[in-house]
Structure formats: C-alpha cells, structure tokens
Amino acid sequence: MSTAKNVAKAPEVQLIANAVISDGAHRVLLTRYGDDGDERWWLPGAQLQPYEHPDEALQRALDALLPAAPSRALNHVESFRGRRGWHVMFNYLVTVAPGADSGADGQWFPTDALPAFVHGPWEAGVIAKALRAADGTVAP
Fold first, then answer.
1. Taking CA atoms, which of 10, 22, 41, 127 is between 20 and 30 Å from 72?
2. Mean local confidence (pLDDT), 23-41
3. Around Cβ 24, how many Cβ atoms within 10 Å?
4. pTM (2 decimals)?
5. Among 36, 137, 28, 40, which residue's Cα sits nearest to residue 91?
6. Which residues pair with 37 in a beta bridge?
C-alpha cells in the first residue's frame, strides 16, 4: 500500500509585506486593485520572493509609490488561512511628511473616509491597529 495517497498536500504559503503609509495628517496612502476600473483599494505591498527579507519586499513596493525614503517600522505580524493557502503578513507602519507625493499608483484617503477594500474589513483593521500603535493608545 502506498502511503503517498494518505498524505495531504501541504497548503501554499504566501509571505507578504504590507505598508500602512501615513502622512501624520490622518491620511493613508492606498493602491487601486487591478487596472479594469475596479473601485476597490488595498494596502501597498509585495509578496516576498524566495529567501527575501520582508524589509526588501516592502522596499520594492515603496519604490513604486514614494520618491523619498520614508521612515518605517514593523508594526505587527499576523497569519491566517486564505483562499489560496496560508498567509503570513508583515504589516509595517510607514511615515511620510504631510503633503508627500503619492506617485502614479497611489491615492491618499482620510482615515475617517476610507474606500471599499479588496478584502472587506481586513485592510481597515490593519490600518486602525497600526495607527493606534503609532499614537500610543493601544499596544500592537
């Protein structure tokens, strides 16, 4: 009897570095989902390449959005099962000066008027957690 039939296939694992980009004036920078007129938004980020550090993946995502090197700090790590397997998210808080240029791929939104997100309430929760930690009101 072959044991290969009795072994479940391991789920895919996605490692992703996300950025909550804040200008300190109660605005966050988001990127549009897709190019086909979709009105949903998500956090800027990048999937890690094999053996890549989350800081490097984050830098790749930021290079497309921000011309100046912003201040950044890992805010929190979370993991959950998604549709395509297991997700491990490295969520960073990135701080830029008020009025910073967003580049062509991003748009600023007031934190009290966020748009529709790709993943429903997940993005808004990550934003709230990062900004509360930055304010010192709640530990991450």
1. 41
2. 83
3. 11
4. 0.84
5. 28
6. none
Q: What is the C-alpha to C-alpha distance for residues 31 and 117, in angstroms, rounded to an integer?
A: 10
Segment (H or E) for 44: none
Rounded-to-integer distance, Cα 97 and Cα 83, Å: 36
Question: Would you report the helix, strand and coil content of the chain in percent, each value rounded to 5?
Answer: 20, 35, 45
> What would the pLDDT profile of 78-87 be if each residue is shown by its tens digit?
999 887 789 9
Provide DSSP, 45-85: EEEPPTT--HHHHHHHHHHTT-SS--EEEEEEEEEEEETTE
What pLDDT shows up at residue 58? 94
If you search the block for the tokens 């053996």, which residue do you land on? Answer: 51
Residues comprising the chain, all counted: 140
Tell me the C-alpha distance between 105 and 116, whole Å. Answer: 17
Q: 92, 18 in Cβ contact below 8 A?
A: yes
**Model pLDDT, residue 140:** 41
Is the model more confident about 46 or about 11? 46
64-73 pLDDT, tens digit per residue, is 788 776 789 9
